[in-house]
Amino acid sequence: MTPRELRATGSLAAIFAMRLLGLFMIYPVFATYARHLPGATPAMIGLALGAYGLTQGVLQIPFGLLSDRIGRKTVISAGLLLFGIGSAVAALATSIEGVLVGRVLQGTGAVGSAILAFVADLTREEVRTRAMAMIGMTIGLSFVIAIVLGPALAGAIGLAGIFWLTAGLAATGIGITLGVVPTPAATLRHRDAEPVPALFARVLRDRELLRLDFGIFALHVVLTASFLAVPRLLMGTLQITSGGEWRLYLPVLAASVVLMVPAVILAEKGGRMKEVLIAAIVLLAASNVAMAVAGSHGAVLIAALIGFFTAFNVMEAMLPSLVTKSAPADAKGTATGIYSSAQFLGIFVGGAGGGWVSAVDGVTGVFAFAFVVALIWLVIAATMRRPRRYKSYLARCGKIAQGEVGVLASRLQAAPGVVEAVVAPEEGVAYLKIDPAHFDADVVNRIVAR
Predict the structure, then answer these.
(1) Residues forming a β-bridge with 429
(2) Number of domain units in the chain
(3) Is the domain of 67 the same as that of 184?
(4) Fewer CB within 10 Å, N or C, the chain?
């Protein structure tokens, strides 16, 4: 990567990190601190926790498409401003209803698709996968740091303080967007990085992609719902007071990351993606059962938490890879956009549904709800086809006449190791799905050189 590409990727990853830190830091503390607000009930607390997922899920794809028209920096800055305003509203709230309004406003800052499209604008095709991987690593690291940092900060500055910190991070993100991120020569639509409306119907008819969309939806239903119950378990079973939870989350998350690595290697390098995915879903379901029956057994609770976060981390790493492998050659951005929207809608359903169940049946009911969702996912995932070890490849074609598109696509399709080929003349590239074991890049390069 060139210095400019590194600067672009690093600064955009930093914007992602600041936004996600603010969102995830409240997860482990919200249920504990929000119950002291006027009007707080288990149902309202759950709704407020998940509310941002609804607006985020609905607006993310439209904001990405809008950035094609009015510019990435404009959309990202406006989205971060909305996110910051929502954080300030939540910080100033004197009731749970006020926090709910703030969370809804936070979700309107749906800039994820625009950021990924900006990465594509600022990187060459041959290094774009590496740049996207850096963004993905930043997202995972932000989650781990936030879960540990949230309780420590809440003990010092309270829930309102975390929301104010989130507003400050949003303001910093705007500064990075306007002052650090390079400005591209042109804003283009990249099918490998952003949704294309004409491809929506095709992607939504793909059963394998729909299984994966349900997977990320279910994973975040379970995650969000579980965080409505886990804080009460920590206080009741382990006598961990508010603000001290980080001392448990730190070693638990460290252990889960250590256990995650060999599982992901086995899935990716060993060709066992379906088996590892099924095992992770079973572990997720079992960990919820274990937390429900832990009672006064601290060791059972700790083991269940390690299992829960191990399963979560494994699937957060695997599911995007499965989407990329399953998506049509020219629809990776569309498939990823729909997948991401499903994730945020899962956060909303997990918060709202988990809160409602908590009001009816308490902590045990929340874990039962999460278990049922995981069980439904297990049944759906069991019918998935074994993923092939395909990869994406972009070949630059340059200027091409419309009449030559079909001929070029046919020649590329016949090249060794090419499974699917789609030529996009408006972008000057060909999107290929390849079998790395048989692919010959030199042959493809000679074909596109014409």
Answers:
(1) 396, 424
(2) 3
(3) yes
(4) C
Is the CB of residue 292 less than 8 Å from the CB of residue 364?
yes
The residue whose two tokens read 């971060």 is 80
Q: CA distances (Å), 351 to each of 100, 120, 361, 424, in order?
A: 12, 33, 15, 41
List, as one string, the DSSP characters of 52-100: HHHHHHHHHHHHHHHHHHH-HHHHHHHHHHHHHHHHHHHHH-SSHHHHH
268: its two tokens: 């990716």
Whether 450 has a pLDDT exceeding 70, the answer reads no
Residues 182 and 222 in one domain: no
**Residues 377, 415 within the same domain:** no
In a shared domain, residues 246 and 149: no
Q: Are residues 369 and 266 in the same domain?
A: yes
| Structure confidence at residue 42 (pLDDT) | 93
Does residue 219 share a domain with residue 159? no
Domain that holds residue 422: 391-449
- pLDDT at residue 223, as a whole number: 95
Q: What is the mean pLDDT of residues 249-271?
A: 90
CA distances from 446 to 268, 386, 398, 426, 428 (A): 30, 33, 13, 21, 15
The string of pLDDT tens digits covering residues 38-59 is 999 999 999 999 999 999 999 9
Mark whether 249 and 131 lie in a shared domain: no
What is d(CA 114, CA 273) in angstroms, rounded to the nearest whole number?
Answer: 30
- Residues 23 and 122 grouped into a single domain: yes
The predicted-structure confidence for 395-412, as pLDDT tens digits, reads as follows 888 777 777 888 888 888
b/e per residue, 200-211, with b = 16+ CB within 10 A? bebbeebebbbb
Q: What distances in angstroms separate CA 82 from CA 103, 176, 435, one per listed residue?
A: 11, 16, 43
Residue 288: how many other CB atoms lie within 10 Å: 28
pLDDT by residue (tens digit) across 135-191? 888 888 898 899 999 999 988 899 999 999 999 999 999 999 999 998 887 666 777
In the 8-state DSSP scheme, what is residue 387? P
Read off the pTM: 0.91
Least confident of 47-56, 194-203, 337-346: 194-203
Calculate the average pLDDT of the chain: 89
